[in-house]
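Hey everyone, long-time lurker, first post.

I ran two proteins through the pipeline my lab uses and got sequence/structure pairs for each. Pasting them in order. The first:
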Amino acid sequence: MNKIQIVGVGDDGVEGLTNHARALIEAADVLVGPANLLPKVAIGPSERIESGSDLQRLGEMLNEMSSRNVVLLAGGDPLFYGTARFLCDSLGKDLFEVVPHVSSMQLAFARVKESWDDAYLTNLATQPLDRVVERIRTADRVGLFTTEEITPAALAAALLDRRIDYFNVYVCENLGSPDERVTQGDLSSLQGQTFGPLNVMVLVRRQGVADRPQQMEGKRLFGNPDDQFLQSKPKRGLLTPMEVRCIALALMDLGPTSIVWDVGAGSGSLAIEASQIVTGGQVYAIEMDAEDFGLMTDNAERYGCSTLIPVHGQAPEALAALPDPDVIFVGGTGRAVGELVDTIFDRLRPGGRFVVNVASPDNLVGVQAAFQRRNIEPSVRMANIARGNYQLDRLRFEAVNPSFLICGTKP
């Protein structure tokens, strides 16, 4: 049984093929490929068959021709969300050899000199526009294939309509061909412009800008999505993730009249949600970083938190004038978190709850030791969360940084 050769072809056709790829095509008995690629490859056999859009039928046809010397043409890298991946999955890898060309997505990122190893990649032909826009909101780099209906200008308008205006944008047309063109600008500059159908759009977040959160429809008492909070770049990721926040709030055992300290509050996500539970008490959110403190006050205003009191300062000095709390939550305090627990533990009221969120095993050990010095056996949980992330037509899981939650009750 002959192996079917799957050969990637760029927009430049035969000119961009390697000698090995050309030799495979010239030696073929039959050439199979999409209607837009077959005319670009003038070399090879006279017997040519259009592959069509029905991949199931294509697989059956190739299986029937397995005794012949067949070359299947595919655009760019056939394994980059392309035909080859489906065929290898459905018919088995042993039936094929793959000779890739550079994918148009790879070319686009090369043209704009940006890394694409952690970019959000998607195809507007297979993903709903609203889902794509919300994923772009918190991305650093984005690569996407547009469609005739959702053009670069239409996507730019959808992003601007949601106040997502913090990206530099590149539209790369006809990559690899003589009439290749790259247009650079911001999102507003794309409005009214038209581009060729063969384009890849690349978005690059400007340095240091904060996300524009979603609108407040469907606001929850707690467990609001991370992207509903303003948070700073490049420090993004320090915000307590939604899933960890829910566990922490449960462990804090809040009541309507609780007095709460959130030490190292960052941009305020946990303090804000605590204040929505503590409707008759007070939540003191202590943060030393001026930028994060400003974002916290903006977030609190958006959520209408009447019981949240932002405190700009560093613990433990900033805590001296505050009333003794029923609950203390500590997060984002760096290496000295164990010492901080020791320093402020005596301020906690009897029967009060102490909850600490740390990211490193070293800090976990330090907090455990601080609790045990008070004859408290801490309860410890490790939170390992992975969120589904669609990359073109495949579901992948993106891990959130693991963290530890340590809690105890003062006798």
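...and the second, right after it:
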Amino acid sequence: MSLSGSYSTTVKSPMGDQAGTFTVVDNGDGTFSGNMAGGMGSMDVEDGKVDGNTLTWKMNMTVPMPMTLDCEATIEGETLAGNVNAGAFGAMPVTGTKTA
């Protein structure tokens, strides 16, 4: 099963639900690249790792404040579920459905 694709996502943040599109490109060597695009702009995946059907990565957020987000998600079939850890703001659940 390829993890690559686009996922329509929702992050449950302190500022309300944040809808976005998470693009995953499985590099086939235990790493992945991609980005998360939404209402607050686009963030590139950094240090993306693949372990089975679990992804871990970092993103550098600039809006509304600069912060490094530590992310993890597991893909089961067409769905994605995990957490975006925003430092002092804690872990925010992320869910998604594969769209392409």
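Reply from user beta_strand_b:
Welcome! Quick read of the second one: The mean pLDDT is 94. DSSP finds no helices and nine strands in the chain.
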